[in-house]
Write a structure and sequence with these properties.
Layout lengths: L6 H32 L4 H29 L1 H20 L4 H29 L4 H9 L1 H18 L4 H6 L2 H13 L6 H4 L4 H7 L3 H28 L6 H17 L1 H30 L3 H14 L2 H12 L4 H34 L6 H5 L6 H21 L1 H24 L1 H5 L1
């Protein structure tokens, strides 16, 4: 392990940078409706603005992965700081669709750049405990979403405008920018260990890495798509659909905070298998139950998805270290890209389900615009009550497949470790 005397300060600054990333998700989700009213934006325009963050993220995380070894993690994080600053300022002083579009793109690029630099930074400064520390680092993503939604809720109650709510993100932004500008950074673990660039790119063709990239599609969709859509899909099934998201996110924070004993007891591959099984069980409960059992489903689901993202990164960093920062960031980029594509696909699927549950020849637009309390509005509500769980049930196949795949991975890793153990070699 490299001597990194400032690793605690670097880790704290990394957590603050990720906090800004997650606050941007939580606060923007809370104010999106008001932005639509204030700037007279339709649903398609609001959807495009929201999706821009998901496109900017994978673009930045992949490009950042390819350049981080060249320009260094410090310069990359200063770039992230400048994009966060620009994105937040443009949002505060937005004048309409295009300023909101550009501001969201800037924030998305900043968020991806933070991951591009901080994932390899945490893996480098804690090379003796990667999976645990990546879990500790990534707890600030669900944690920040909780904080962001609470900020919106309480400031709304106090009558404080959305510009101030967005402006609060400047505080952790300026702090992490200042800290990173003053701290000394190590080189990435791959550079420190003397692995050549050619060897790194060759390692990306390792069948195990390709297998993990494919599984990252599934773990990211299971976690992020469901989290983003719970309120939409279940608000006609439960009066407290947003509370389901809060419970799930809170469980994720606690799970990642106490990751160390779990990871050491079960190994990364074992944790991923348990996560997939619990995720499938949680989705099944949320798609097949009502009332209080929905909350049980949210708890089980939160326990399942809480370890997915950081443990996938930790597994690659520990077992495929030659893939370096590029490997970690390709994993993150692949996950976020998969979520954005799946969201587009499932949006169409959800609309088709609604149409199928309305009277023959019904126009979804007409029913959506119907006044509350009318027969058409009530019919649409009933259609949504049936369609939401069906989307969850369609998504359920993903963690089921993941459970089988991770069982195979656990079996493979145990055999590989057994073959490489000194006792086996001596025999």
């Amino acid at each position: 392990m490299q001597a990194t005397p400032q690793r605690k300060q670097l880790f704290v600054a990394s957590c603050l940078a990720l906090l800004v990333t997650s606050l941007s998700f939580g606060i923007r989700a809370g104010i999106l409706g008001r932005l639509g009213v204030e700037f007279e934006l339709n649903a398609a325009q609001l959807g495009t603005i929201a999706a821009t963050a998901f496109w900017g993220f994978p673009l930045a995380v992949v490009i950042g992965g390819f350049v981080v070894d060249v320009i260094g993690m410090k310069k990359l994080l200063i770039i992230a700081f400048l994009f966060h600053l620009a994105g937040i300022a443009l949002t505060i002083f937005a004048g309409g669709y295009w300023t909101l579009f550009i501001s969201t793109l800037c924030v998305g690029i900043a968020n991806g750049t933070v991951e591009a630099a901080c994932n390899p930074l945490v893996a480098t400064i804690y090379s003796d405990n990667k999976t645990t520390k990546l879990n500790h680092f990534h707890l600030w993503f669900p944690g920040g979403i909780v904080i962001g939604t609470l900020i919106v809720y309480f400031l709304d109650k106090a009558g404080i405008g959305w510009q101030v709510q967005v402006g609060l993100m400047l505080i952790p932004t300026i702090i992490y920018g200042y800290l990173f500008s003053k701290l000394s950074f190590p080189v990435t673990e791959r550079v420190a260990s003397g692995v050549s660039t050619a060897e790194m790119y060759k390692s990306l063709l390792n069948p195990l890495f390709i297998f993990m990239i494919i599984l990252m599609f599934g773990t990211a969709i299971t976690e992020l798509f469901t989290g983003q859509w719970i309120d939409l899909l279940l608000k006609n099934v439960s009066d407290n659909a947003i509370l389901l998201l809060t419970i799930e996110t809170g469980i994720m924070v606690l799970g990642r905070a106490f990751a160390e004993p779990v990871v050491h007891r079960f190994s990364p591959a074992g944790v991923l298998l348990i996560s997939a099984i619990l995720s499938a069980a949680g989705l099944y409960l949320m798609g097949h139950t009502t009332g209080n059992m929905l909350f049980v489903g949210a708890i089980v689901f939160g326990m399942g998805v809480c370890y997915f993202w950081p443990t996938m990164l930790g597994f690659v960093s520990e077992n495929l270290p030659k893939t370096g920062a590029v490997g970690l960031n390709l994993m993150g980029g692949a996950g976020m890209f998969a979520v954005s594509v799946y969201m587009i696909f499932m949006s169409g699927y959800y609309d088709n389900l609604l149409v199928a549950k309305l009277p023959a020849g019904a126009s979804l637009a007409d029913y959506s615009n119907a006044a509350a309390g009318t027969e058409m509005a009530n019919a649409l509500g009933e259609a949504k009550k049936l369609a939401g769980p069906e989307v969850l049930n369609a998504t359920l196949i993903i963690p089921v497949i993941l459970s089988i795949a991770f069982a195979g991975l656990l079996f493979y890793m145990r055999n590989k470790n057994k073959a490489n153990s000194p006792t086996t070699n001596a025999g």
